Automatic annotation (TrEMBL):
This is Ribosomal RNA small subunit methyltransferase I. Residues 233-275 form the RsmI HTH domain. InterPro entries: 4pyrrol_Mease, 4pyrrol_Methylase_sf, 4pyrrole_Mease_sub1, 4pyrrole_Mease_sub2, rRNA_ssu_MeTfrase_I, RsmI_HTH. It catalyses: cytidine(1402) in 16S rRNA + S-adenosyl-L-methionine = 2'-O-methylcytidine(1402) in 16S rRNA + S-adenosyl-L-homocysteine + H(+). Residues 5-208 form the Tetrapyrrole methylase domain.
Length: 279
């Protein structure tokens, strides 16, 4: 293998979801690094990939400062390093960001062997739009902080994907009803690709009711539909324009009102010109 750092996506459940290229890297890399070396050893054993005495470095969020120099040292010696997080794609709610950034800063080659991702898997099975989406990670654990965080996402013109602990998913869905609205469509995806995979779809109020009792088991991904288009009356647009046209240019007034109300700038600009002609 050519020298460099290779980020390897590993299965989120079904061991056979690993790619052939990922297995090639695990077989041929000079050094292996992993969020959990025991998990990676087990995956390699399942697929018959021998370690052959190669060094294996534990690298995770709690030891990054100490372990990163070892990985960078291997790269400095012209070696190839394969890095795998516990499950899924490194850097996506998993360790690896600081390692990748440090390797790039030193001028080393950084590659990815793409594959399993809970984010993309949940999007695929959710039944919600996938042309534009935001992965928001884990929400805050505190109630008020979580509600403020959700409020920032409530008007997002994109499908929102987030992770949550099964112990808190009921609380999360109740807060989503408050901040997103009871009828916003969503999907709660549990144990993706595993034996007891379960996808529950519906409006947020129904999901909040369903998950209000005993917490579910397993890994949880929540997918929420984008905000509905805002309906802004012509009267509201005109009122905002009149407040601005006397103190700024037509173009600037249209730009500001467009941003404030979420209305296409061209439409606002045409209405501003009409108001000026009427004056």
């Amino acid at each position: 293998m050519a020298p460099g750092l290779y980020f390897i996506a590993t299965p989120i459940g079904a061991a056979r979801d690993i790619t052939l290229r990922a297995l090639d890297i695990l077989r041929d890399a000079d050094v292996l690094a992993a969020e959990d070396t025991r998990t990676l050893r087990h995956l390699m054993e399942i697929h018959g990939v021998p370690l052959r005495g190669r060094p294996m470095i534990a690298y995770h969020d709690h030891n990054g400062d100490a372990a990163r120099p070892r990985v960078l040292g291997a790269l400095a010696r012209g070696l190839s390093v394969g890095y795998a997080s516990d499950a899924g794609t490194p850097l996506v709610a998993d360790p690896g960001f600081q390692l990748g950034r440090a390797a790039i800063a030193e001028g080393y080659t950084v590659c990815a062997a793409p594959g399993p991702s809970a984010v993309l898997t949940a999007l695929t099975v959710s039944g919600l739009p996938t042309d534009r989406f935001l992965f928001a990670g884990f929400p805050p654990t505190g109630g008020s902080a979580r509600r403020s965080w959700l409020k920032e996402l409530s008007d997002m013109a994109a499908t929102v994907v987030l992770y949550e602990s099964p112990k808190r998913v009921g609380e999360l869905l109740r807060d989503m009803v408050s901040e997103f609205g009871a009828q916003r469509r969503a999907a709660v995806c549990r144990e993706l690709t595993k034996r007891f995979e379960e996808i529950t779809r519906g409006p947020l109020d129904e999901l909040a009711e369903k998950f209000s009792g005993t917490p579910p088991r397993g890994e949880i991904v929540v997918v929420v539909d984008r905000a509905p288009p805002r309906v802004v009356s012509a009267e509201a647009v005109e009122a905002e324009l009149r407040l601005r046209l006397g103190r700024m240019s037509t173009r600037d007034a249209a730009e500001e009102v467009s941003r404030a109300l979420g209305v296409p700038r061209r439409d606002v600009y045409q209405r501003a010109l009409a108001l000026e002609r009427e004056a």
